[in-house]
Amino acid sequence: MKARILSVVGARPNYMKVAPLQKAFERYSHWVEHLIVHTGQHYDAEMYDVFFADLDLPEPAVFLGVGPGTHAQQTARIMLAFEPVCMQMRPRLVIVVGDVNSTLACTLTAVKLGIPVAHVEAGLRSFDRTMPEEINRIATDAIADYFFVTEPSGVENLRREGAPPERIFLVGNTMIDSLLLALPKARHHPIRDRFGLRPKEYVVVTLHRPSNVDHPEQLRMLLEILSEVATWRTVVFPLHPRTQQAIDRFGLREYLCSLRALPPLSYVEFLALLVEADFVMTDSGGIQEETTYLGIPCLTLRTTTERPITCQIGTNQLVPPQAENIRAALDRLRRGERKHGQVPPLWDGHAAERIAEIIVRHCLRLPLE
Question: 288 and 300 in contact (C-beta within 8 Å)?
Fold first, then answer.
């Protein structure tokens, strides 16, 4: 009988982390049945099929459809929905990725049922507990069984917190696996021509953190600065639903007139914009990693980052989101003071292969005969 593994996805960034695992486990298909469970934490019906097609992902075996809600509501609903799935499907292992509510909820559920949990992207820490994601990361790693880590800081954090060293594996970054698979499509995608964007003459911006978009004065300040950037670079601004709602709620739509505001994009569409951008401004986590791999300067508008290697050796620069800090960083970029980074070790497109082999041989100890 095959060993069943359930991988959990709940939000868009999870797709990019699980897709390479799906492919990597195909090598062990005689011994392993790898299935995807989609919690429905974030679900956009219009973009769903496009994302799965972009990443060559099969349809999830299970869709829980929990929908939006407060952190407590979502976490509780996911646990209630995931428990009967675990009891019926009886997996040998549950894989969770990243730091969304689904990550924590499914970890809690599996562990309480005695099912081992592997956390992919374990050990990342911003040391900012006002971020819900930080709570999810800490709590997940406190009870998970196996830890797959993207960068050395994660190993150090886990060891300091008491995780067994023999269960910590520095394997690289499955986000980069997905990026490398999608890069040929992205380089030839027509979206840049569609919007008349010339290479290195535009900036890509993403904003969605509550600290940046949930307060009217903060969001107004950021939009004012983007309007200033628009006088010397085209500003391409794919709008996160949370940000779009905040702009409408606070009556700030006038600031979008000078910007190229776009609806949410598919993975390949967004990557196609990223690869030819002059630089990027963001408060996202994963974009810090993607720009580091692509060698594109990135201004992360936050006071902390859980991905310090992107600043230490990558192209990322942490910019506390006050007007004077952002304008100073933009002035440096405009003068040509660019950060030239390196690709972190093991970010080579083979992280998922390493994870699958460790899980099959070490965690499950399957006799491969």
Answer: yes
